[in-house]
Amino acid sequence: MRIAALILALWPAGARAAEPGCLGTRQSDVVVYGGTAAGAAAAVTAAREGRRTVLVAPERHVGGHAVEGLGSSDINNHWFRNETAIGGIAREFYTRVGKKYGQPGAVYQFEAHVAEAVYAEMLRQPGLEVAAGTRLLEPLEKAVMWKAGEKRLRAIRTAGGECFAGEQFIDASVEGDLLAAAGVTTTVGREGNAVYGESRNGIRGENRYRNFPMRLDPYRIPGDPTSGLLPTIQDEALGTPGEGDRRIQGFCFRLCLTRNPARQRPIARPAGYRAETYELYRRYARAGGELFSPAANLPNGKTDLGSWHDLSANLYGMNHDWPQAGTERRSAIYKDHREFVQGLLWFMANDEALPARTREAWRGWGLCADEFTDNGNWPHQIYV
Fold this sequence. Notes:
By secondary structure, the protein is α/β, with parallel strands linked by helices. The protein has eight helices and 14 strands.
């Protein structure tokens, strides 16, 4: 999803006592909500411009997906070179990353803990506070306070009871939760062609892009619809091409793996593991499909394992209510995805039904012991 960075309201600055219903109120010129890369950039920029700024981050680790495993950026990472388009705060970030690796200029492939250290340095600005692990009060409509008689924000309430007042509010969260709290209209899913008179929106019909190269039987007992569908296959019609729907793209994790035994945590068979969860992968391989495998693409032999393959670590269809869900539901979706992918890692290296070359390609890889050390070496955030 595209990160929202929208100024929502302006009001006169000044000292403020605690707002009603607040344990305390912090007064700033600029309140940025969201610990993403956009949130960090907005907060740093505002502080450097002399504005008293607070970055209110629901995340405990600030920096967005760069600090959650997405270290293989799309800059100079394909057949073209595009670094000339990078400037400002982004250029500063990549240059600081380069310095961490002893390089004289910008470095665009990096480890998660390095990215987090760089963001922490950049956020140490005079007049800038960071309130990490601080999320909006739910339900969201209770998280906003308006200037008397106007549809203008004066403060936001958080789940912990603290409030943040400011002149300007910036929503830099991935999901746009402050936008939703403020009543800003949004669209979730795919818009239909008819909405704006377009031709390539909405549901797509069959096409050759990222489809399986073969047809697979979707039923638990091949040829028997009464046996039910295989796990991960959605029991709903595709819909009419061109019409809108609520579906969003699949989620995964940007996994950091390593082959270095001295720096890894071995991948163990998860509790509750059921090999039949991955039967679709077996059938895909049996029909001649080539399953994905890790490759070191970051410094120190680590991976940024994405999921752009025909069949990968995306858990399709299990995330459609994420954008408008609350914290409890999002946590459950995160847990479901984590359990699915942890089982998949074990399956790929150990399931005897897979080709030997596939199992061999996965054997020896483990989680990076020096990444995400407070979360079992697993990313704290799902890749939205």
